Here is the input.
Amino acid sequence: MMNLAMQEKQTAGELCDLSGMDRLGPYWVVTEKRWAEANRRGMVFAICADEKWIWSIARFDVNMKFHMPYNGDLVGERARDDVSFEEWQEMSRNVTYLIKAGTILASVNSDLYAYSRQTQGVECLWLK
Here is the structure.
């Protein structure tokens, strides 16, 4: 690991690695159990596989559609061979996810904090 601060936190047991968690677009889905345990222990959050810190975590308290602009990460998830790369890019420009109440998402930037400030039913749980 190149990030020495991350490695130190991981070695000391002070880091919650979300690398293996499910993804929802550019976000990582955090289970309630994992969130509660890591938060109780005062851990920091990271994606060790990519050596990226988590900057914001939010809970969606109501079912909602979460609309986001095209993100380059989605291009790599193209699974259909009957659609050209250009067509896929156009289809992916705006993506809407249906998020169930109780879902906790983690982000490598502070966008979930900003979203929680603008949206009822979304609570920022953690901000680095």
Observations:
- Confidence is low (pLDDT under 50) at residues 70-80.
- The chain has one domain: 13-127.
- The longest strand covers residues 64-69.
- Residues 94 and 125 are 26 Å apart (CA to CA).
